[in-house]
Every structure is written in C-alpha cells, then in structure tokens.
Amino acid sequence: MKVFNISVQAQCWLYHFAWLLNVLGMVLTDLWLPMVVGTVVTTYLSLDAWVRWKYVLPLKQQITVLQAEVNQLRRKELDQ
C-alpha cells in the first residue's frame, strides 16, 4: 500500500480551494444545507492547516533546536 504525503502548506491551499468551491456552490445552487455543512467543515480544516503551517511547525523546529542545545549543555556539564 502506497501512502501519499502532502505538506501542510499544500493542505492549507487545498482546503482553502475546497472552501471557495463550497461558497460558490452555495451562491450558484439551491443546495443550501449540504453546502453550509461543507463550508463549515472546510472552514475548520483550512484554519487548522493554516495554524499548523504558520505556528505549530516553526515552534516544533525551535523546540528541536533548543532540545539539542540543552542536551549539548548537559553533556558538557557531565564532562566537567
């Protein structure tokens, strides 16, 4: 089984595009209830992907760097 990975940035753009399609569907058709549900769901997904892209991933990278620095300082302290 092949697993396809998609970046968080690509997810963000995909969900924003899906949200736009849902809004256009609400404007152009009379299928309001399914389109409103789809818009609510894609709004949540696009906001979640945007927050992960802009805030969570950079924070994880900073934590990794800080953890490496802490480990290096601990090794220096143990060597003394």
Topology (elements, then pairings):
Layout: H1 8-28, H2 32-79
* Average pLDDT taken over every residue: 89
The low-confidence runs, each spanning 5 or more residues with pLDDT under 50, are: none
Categorize the overall geometry.
Answer: elongated
Please, how many helices? 2
Structural class: mainly alpha
Please provide the ordered H/E string of secondary-structure elements.
HH
Distance between the termini: 51 Å
Beta-strand proportion = under 5%
Q: Quick one: biggest sheet?
A: none
Radius of gyration: 21 Å
Structure description:
The protein is an all-alpha fold. The protein is built from two helices and no strands. Helix 1 runs antiparallel to helix 2. The termini are far apart.
Tags for this model:
single chain, 80 residues, mainly alpha, 86% helix, elongated
Please sum up the structure shown:
The chain has 80 residues and is mainly alpha-helical.
